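Box 3.1. Reading complex inputs
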Amino acid sequence: DIQMTQSPSSLSASVGDRVTIACRASQGIGGYLNWYQQKPGKSPKLLIYAASTLQGGVPSRFSGSGSGTDFTLTISSLQPEDFATYFCQQAYTGTFGPGTKVDTK
Amino acid sequence: EVQLLESGGALVQPGGSLRLSCEASGFAFSNQLMSWVRQAPGRGLEWLSGIAPGGESTSYADSVKGRFTNSRDNSKNTLYLQMNSLRVEDTAVYYCVIDLSEWRFDPWGQGTLVTVSS
């Protein structure tokens, strides 16, 4: 089984900050990595697939990078609507990471 | 507008059964791969099962294999999850999702809560 880890598990940030979330796979997965955003009380939403491709309608301040085992989600300038929990997911067998909660500093 | 509306969540005793439904609208349901994903309270996400557009093939996570059955009725645009031999650890919000392929899930339904407790 491919295990996914994320770091940090939570972070505090301010509007306008640059935010980076890391995701690591227990074995190489090429570029098969998706990112989801989940706001409190809401369903998850697909942000990025294939490590770096933005899903339609996702603001360009979100970006993804990485391949193999190490991946990054970056929010270039945090907006009020971006406070949420972010999950990575390996796209080999579908396992999700434990999530990173972004809250206000 | 694409909509997925889950229903059927309830409080059930350990060992019991429950059937969840997901009514789909706004897209060609019969052409779409679908999946179920759950989220235990305060926990992460877990893919449970996928089903081919025609229902001819299904796949399951090890945690539910042999206990849960994924099915669909394309004439009713509805996805089902039959859950048997429920355990306390099956307590979660259950989501149906459109599987865009390569494990890309979008969009998600609003979820339905299943609580397994005595």
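In summary: Chain B is about 0% helix and 50% strand.
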